[in-house]
Each structure stands twice: as C-alpha cells, then as structure tokens.
Amino acid sequence: MNVLTVPASVPFVLLAAVTGLSWWEDYVLPTRPAEQHEASAEVPFTPAAPAQLAELPRADTALTSEVVGR
What we know:
- This protein has helices spanning 5-27, 34-42, 65-68.
- It is mainly alpha-helical.
C-alpha cells in the first residue's frame, strides 16, 4: 500500500514546486529599477502588419502550370 503513495503524491509535489517558484519570483527576486520600468511603459507597441497571402486559385479552376506558378 505504501508503494502507491509516491505516484499519487507526484502531482501535489509538482504543484507545490510551481507555487513556491512563483512566490520566490514575486517576493524574493529583486525587481527592476523604477527608471527602467517607467521607460519601458512609455514606448508604445505597434504590431507588425499582417502578411499578405497570395490569392488562392478557385476550386473549379484546373491546375495548369500557369495556376501553379511554375
């Protein structure tokens, strides 16, 4: 019966490890200086334009060398 305790406790041990690391990151590790944090907040994020997709041939078009692009 004691053999089943190790496999059954693995998820809880992993959850405790992730929770502990999250707490460590939030409360123990040093934070960035305020100047760097404020400077990064001022830079606006501009997303790149979406890529233009090539026009696909219609379903009823026969696949010829012109359609395929060879």
